[in-house]
Structures are given as structure tokens and as C-alpha cells.
Design a protein that fits this description.
This is Permease. GO terms for molecular function: cytosine transmembrane transporter activity. InterPro entries: CodB. The chain is mainly α and 465 residues long. Helix 5 packs across helix 6. It contains 18 helices and no strands.
Length: 465
Amino acid sequence: MDLTGPHDTVEVTDAMGLSAKDEDQMGRWSLFMAFYGIASAMFMLYIGAAMAVAFGTANAIIGLALTIIVYSLINHVLAKHSIRNRTTVARFSRTILGRIGTVIAAVILALTAIYYAVFEGAIVVYAFQAAFGGEKWLWSLIVVAYSTPLILGGVRRFLDKLNGWLLPLYIIGLVVMVVWAGVRHGFSDAWLTHTPGPELPLANGGPGWLATFSAYLGVWVLMMYVMDYAALGKRKDVRFHTRYTFTWLFWVVTYGINALVGIFLTFTIPGLEVSEAGLSGGLVTLMGPVGLILILVFQTRINTANYYIGAANLREFGERLFGARLPSAFWVVVSSVIIYALMLLPITQYLLQALAWQGVLVSGWVAIAVTHILLNRSRTEEHGSLGDEHYRRANVPGLIAWVVATVVGIVLTSAFEWGATWGPIATVVVASGLYAGLRPVLRQHSAMHVPAAAPYRRVATEPAN
């Protein structure tokens, strides 16, 4: 089973210090299919519909377009760097935060992925209950029980195939949902013309398109997913992946198309509740067994990513903090047990608050990561093969920037009405600005520390193709 991706790969270098070829990495279409499992989450339908209901369809679409552009630009930078340097989130955190950053970033990403697995699994539970009734604990157990073995198959050997098989069903499912709802309740332009009322003034978090953009900024954890998946790619495929796998095409499908479908369903199916559970229950009510099957397809695809990222980073956290070298299957089971326990506990509202705060942590991390990469474009850092001895315990500029930006973001989002819009944006600006400003001032406290006996290595760039 493969959970760790490139973590455990031993790279061989030639006389010039260049990395050996990367035949051990995933092929372009295998990685493409594995990553595109994220595109089918019911959350993607829900968040687009929620933005349209709150701010109007026009504002939601403008915010979505801006989101897709920004996500594509940022993930082009992150994916390219990660593929070239075998850089996972945990490994790259040593560079921007120091060795302590590996533990911090791993536990944050693990918990975030686990929380999302809880929410997406709960959608399937709700759909089962809407179709058959029954107890929550039983359906939760069934959902976790069928999801866990999928991860045991490994991202390289199974998840790409599974998501490849389910991809046509996902595409057909979107079409079927739209046609079915339209035929049953009638087609109209109401979903395109919805307006919620007077625009919010800027001081209260408006305009609506900016509030929409900021809401999607809170899901920047998917950029961390990008880095962990991109680290599995071949360097010769970097151009393909930065064009199609991790940038504009993926975000058009994941955010754009899903949002439009969610908006259409919300304003077409009478009485449909604007929530993930409401959408799934509405589809089961509308379509019966077909709706249940589609929800199973959608949620199985997204939860392969959530379970994989959760278990992989939980393993990284355990190994770093406790020195526990245990089989990958152990961490898969541990993460699944945590997911099941959280699905049973009545703590949804607390998880939502935790995710909001973790969204601030994640957006700050991403801002620092992108800033670091752009400021170091003249050299290549092979984080995947450099050992811990190359890094200091703490990278002071990175830690200061992350902590200050996180405090600013949490205070703004928690204490002010307009904070939901401006808090995440302020987090990104503060994190990037502080890191860029502090690096030259505190250079002696930066993360890299290269022993004389182990010279800094550069990696070969990908061939032009």
C-alpha cells in the first residue's frame, strides 16, 4: 500500500548532483484520474448554491470566475514546484517554518481532511436514511467500512483506477440531475436572475462577488491537496499537470460547473434546503434509487482524497512527533476510527468553527508558501530527498508571519460582522507581506542549514515537450 507517496523514495544522483529519472512516479493520466476524484464533492454544489442564495446569482458567478483565476495561478506555482522537487506539504513546511513546521502542517492538514471526510460521509448517511430509514450509527459504520479498504489499495495502484471508472458516472450524473429536475419541475431562468435584495455595503462585507470570492478562499486547503498529489507526478509531465490536472480545467469543473448545477437545482426543486444534507435528501426524494446511486458515486470519489490525505498526514505527524514507524495500514485504520467517532458525536457546529479557523491557518500557510517559491525562483530545492539535518528547528520569519497572520484572521472572522469577507483576505496579505519583509532582516534564522559534508543539490529540470 502506498500512503506516503515520494516521502520514502530514495533518490540517486549523478556526478553533477542531478536527480535520477522519475520512472517510479505516477503516470500523467493515473495522477489526473486520482486527483479529479475531488471534483465530485456535494460540497461543491452546495457552496455555489449558498453563495447565489446569499448574494445573488450574478455576484456568485463573478466571484466564481475570480476564484477560478486565482486558484489556477496559485496552483500552477505550487504544482510546478511540488512536481519538480518531490515536495509534499509536510516536507515543504520544513523550508518555510523549520523542522517544527513539518509536525504542525501535518496535523493541521490531517485534521482538516478528516473533518471533510466526516462531512462528506455524513451526506451519504443522510441519503441512506432518506431512502431506507435506519440508525445513524449503522449507516455511519457502513460508510466508513466501505471507504477504508479503498485507501488500503494505495493512491498509485488503485485510487486512479477507481476514480477513472467513476468519472463517466459523475459526468453523466450531473447531466441526469439537471434534466430530471427540469423535466419534473420545469425549466426557467429563475436560477440565473435571482437577487437577494439590496447589495451589502463595503463596510459590511460587500459587495457580494467579493464575499463569494472570500468564501472560496476559506477552502484553500485544496491547495495543500494539490501539493501532496503533485509530489507523485513525473517531472517530464510537469507541463501537462500544470495545464490540465491542477489548474484551470480542474477548477472550472470543480467550482464552476458544480456551482452552476447546484444553483440550478436549488432554484428549480421546490423547498430544497440549501445545505449539503438538503441537496442529497432532495435528490433522493426527486430521483429515488438513481439519486442515491449518484450521491454514492459523488461522495466515494471525494472521500478517497479525504481519507488518503488524512491518513498520510496523520502518519507523517505520528512519525515526526513520536518516532513511531508503523505500517501505513495502521494509520489508515486510526484515521477511519477517528472519522467514525466524529460522525457519531453531535459536534457539527464545533467542527464548522474549527474548519473556519483552520481555513485561516491554511490560507496563511499557502500565502507564505507561494511567496517563498516566487522569491526563490532562481534555485531549485529538492525537499523530498534532503534530510532533516539540512533544516533548522525553526524558521523564524515563517513562524512569525504565520502566527501573526493567523491571529489577525481569527480575530477578524470571529469579532466583526464584515470579518467573514475581510478576515481571510487580511490573513493572506499579512502572511505574505510579513514573510517577504522579515526574510532579509532575519536571514540568519531562516530554515536552511546545509552541512559542509552534504552540499546543496539542484534537480534536473523537466525536458521540453
